[in-house]
Specification:
502 residues; alpha+beta; five-stranded mixed sheet; 13 strands; rod-shaped
Length: 502
């Protein structure tokens, strides 16, 4: 187990490219090995099937094998063992060659030159005339004596001397005594085994070359397949080194690597946009804070200089300076509050300050506060119950911002229409309205219309409205009045229901 653990640790310590190449080579090696084994076993079965077919066609009659010599009770080349019978057969062959110099030797088989051997029921082993090989007997051969006459058994065996052979075992009868005997017919399979060994060497060589080639090709495939990952790694390292977000990599195809590249590009672009928004917010906030702070510093310097020189300011002038300072402090307070509101994440955390909120009650309270800020205005209010799931304080701030915007741009004695029906809150003023070319920017942070820069405000109110409504799952729009009259119409649509949920 320790060795396996060390091997696993070593493998995991390799690079992804090396692991992929090794796994590819291993998979190809297993496939080649299985194919080679299947091929070797198939060829072996075919060769041995052919040998068995040849044996099946061998003669069953011992007399035919002995060329008409009577295979009876007086067989000349018999012995108690195959070795003894072979010795007698070799001696008989030598005598025959000496007495018949013009003949090449007695014929003992057919065209396939099968080697045959007779084993009597008493255990004597006999060879036909001219036999040059003896077959090693087996104790299982005697079972053929109890089988039907046409039965044949096949087994692996050997000749005397150790040469491999396939042996057919059949039952025959001696001519004179009609005693059952065992006839062994064998074919040498040395050539078959040599062919199988050569085939095994060839397949092993092919497998070795295949494994080496698979490792090389696996390396190339891994390098090509992981090229997008290398590009992604280079891009990430470049961002970590230079902090230059927004770097992207090319996307090819639609596979998993392409999806990873697309996700990285989206993340990098989102980070770039976030940094740009952060930079723009800081720059805009600094610009907006500079004006009231400069005014405050001027007024404070004037008061300090008056005290240092011993020439006090007239009471009216001093009161006006203090009033301006108070107004500027209030403007700073509103601006900082708006910045804190906008500093929240674009997506609120699940469950953070969320509850069932009565939107009609929020609208009623916001209208009362708007009446105080625009005492000369007329408010036409029509609200119906509507309950939403959201942040109560943020929603009230958003509705107040919409009403403050309407109060700011309404003419003296004008009318502000407020209606809430079916989750749709509308605020309509009768002021100058918004130019068509400025409508795309009304919800941008710190954006203010050129025609209204002299009016108080930070340019963050409508941005807060848009963010709050988006966090609540609703929509907000601002545009010209639908009836074609003067003024602007703000519409806020929030999901909810007319009755409080149980």
């Amino acid at each position: 187990m320790k060795a396996v653990g060390r091997l696993t640790g070593w493998f995991r310590g390799r690079s992804l490219r090396s692991r992929l190449a090794m796994l590819t080579a291993a998979a190809v090696a297993v496939a080649i090995a299985l194919s080679a084994l299947a091929c070797w076993f198939f060829v072996r079965d075919q060769l041995y099937h052919q040998v068995r077919s040849n044996l099946a066609g061998a003669p069953y009659d011992f007399r035919t094998i002995a060329n008409g010599q009577l295979a009876g009770d007086t067989l000349p080349s018999c012995g108690t063992t195959p070795q003894q019978a072979l010795s007698k057969s070799q001696a008989a062959n030598a005598v025959f060659a000496a007495t018949h110099p013009n003949r090449g030797g007695p014929d003992h088989g057919g065209p396939n030159r099968w080697d045959n051997q007779l084993v009597t029921s008493g255990g004597a082993v006999c060879l036909p005339i001219g036999a040059t090989k003896a077959i090693q007997t087996d104790s299982s051969d005697r079972s053929i004596l109890t089988e039907p006459d046409s039965t044949a058994h096949y087994r692996d065996g050997t000749f005397v001397g150790g040469s491999p052979a396939m042996v057919r075992v059949t039952k025959v009868y001696l001519v004179q005594s009609q005693e059952p005997a065992i006839m062994l017919t064998a074919q040498d399979v040395t050539a078959v085994q040599d062919s199988l060994q050569r085939l095994a060497l060839i397949l092993a060589g092919v497998a070795a070359v295949g494994v080496v080639g698979a490792g090389f090709i696996g390396r190339l495939v891994a390098r090509s397949a992981l090229k997008p990952v290398d590009q992604l790694t280079d891009a990430v390292e470049h961002i970590a080194r230079t902090e230059e977000v927004g770097t992207t990599i090319p996307v090819n195809g639609s596979d998993e690597i392409a999806r990873l590249s697309t996700s990285f590009n989206s993340m990098s672009t989102a980070l770039l946009n976030s940094r740009e928004r952060q930079t723009r917010l800081i720059a805009d906030a600094g610009h907006e804070l500079r004006t009231p702070l400069t005014s405050l510093r001027t007024n404070v310097d004037l008061l300090i200089r008056s005290d240092e020189t011993g020439r006090p300011l007239p009471p009216a002038t001093r009161s006006k300076l203090l009033g301006n300072m108070k107004a500027q402090m209030q403007e700073l307070t509103v601006l900082i509050g708006d910045l804190l509101q906008l500093s929240r994440p674009d997506s609120p955390k699940p469950g953070q300050n969320l509850a069932v909120v009565a939107l009609h009650e929020i609208a009623g309270r916001a209208v009362e506060r708007a009446r105080l800020r625009g005492p000369g205005l007329v408010f036409e209010v029509t609200v119906h119950p509507w309950y939403v799931h959201g942040d109560a304080a943020a929603l009230e701030r958003a509705v107040i911002n919409l009403l403050d915007n309407a109060v700011k741009y309404s003419p003296p004695g004008g009318t502000v229409d407020v209606a809430l029906t079916g989750g749709r809150l509308t605020v309509r003023d009768h002021g100058p309205g918004i130019p068509q070319d400025e409508l795309p920017y009304v919800f941008d942070r710190f954006w203010r219309s050129p025609s209204s820069r002299q009016l108080p405000g930070s340019g963050l109110g409508l941005s807060i409205v848009a963010q709050t409504v988006r966090d609540t799952g609703g929509e907000v729009t601002l545009g010209p009045a639908t009836d074609g009259g003067p003024g602007a119409l703000a519409t806020l649509q929030l999901p909810g229901q007319q009755t409080p949920p149980e």
